[in-house]
Amino acid sequence: MKLKTLWIVVAALTMLCLTACAQKREKKSETAPGMQKRKVLVAYFSATGTTKAVAERIAKATGGDLYEIAPETPYTDDDLNWRNDKSRSSVEMHCDTIRPALKALKTDMEGYDVVFVGFPIWWNLAPRVVNAFVEQHNLQGKVLVPFATSGGDDITNSVADLKKRYPELNWCHARLLNNVSDEELNGWIGTMDGL
């Protein structure tokens, strides 16, 4: 009787180990095609949480590291009032040279092959805090993938502006990701196979 109980315990433990190994393999295969052999960083600025939610989904789909591009002084609701010409965001976006101070720099950029750069579109451009991030980090030799969320603007002009300001950088595969499904998100990431 004791031997039979021992065999049942051994069989149960074996099944448990096999199940755990299978789950680990499944998690690894969740990484979207095109990103499995790449070291990915998903850097994002999000004033209200919308872009952050998309960035988290991209990090999960690519197996990438998540990094918040955060201004040293967070934006308040009054700062974000685009109807007020004197609000912080309005002043920043109307002055081409303003670069908000960043809370912290990402000091270990060397190992990344692909850097997703996410932002909400302000005045049909990337917010100035994104320019600060690009200018204060060494992004040469990396594939930069802009993504954005917007209440009304397309991503075309903001990406054209980034390319014009930083022509030495490799910008590609830009996409506006408002209300994107998991299938659409993974399909977009899949187009990056062979980067």
Task: Give a description of the structure.
- Helix content is about 40%, strand content about 15%.
- The chain has about 200 residues and is an alpha/beta fold.
- Strands 1, 2, 3, 4, 5 and 6 form a six-stranded parallel sheet that branches.
- Helix 2 links the parallel strand 1 (about 40-45) and strand 2 (about 65-70).
- About 30% of the residues are buried.
- Mean pLDDT is about 85; it is low at about 5-30.
Distance between the termini: 60 Å
Radius of gyration: 21 Å
Helix content: 25-40%
Question: Given the C-alpha coordinates, what overall shape results?
Answer: globular
The proportion of residues in beta strands is: 5-15%
What is the N-to-C order of secondary-structure elements (H for helix, E for strand)?
HEHEHEHEHEEH
Which consecutive residue ranges, at least 5 long each, have pLDDT under 50? 6-29
Biggest sheet architecture: 6 strands, parallel
Q: Which structural class do you get from the secondary structure elements?
A: alpha/beta
* Annotation field: number of helices: 6
For the secondary structure, the number of strands is 6
Provide mean pLDDT, rounded.
85
Properties at a glance:
alpha/beta; 6 helices; six-stranded parallel beta sheet
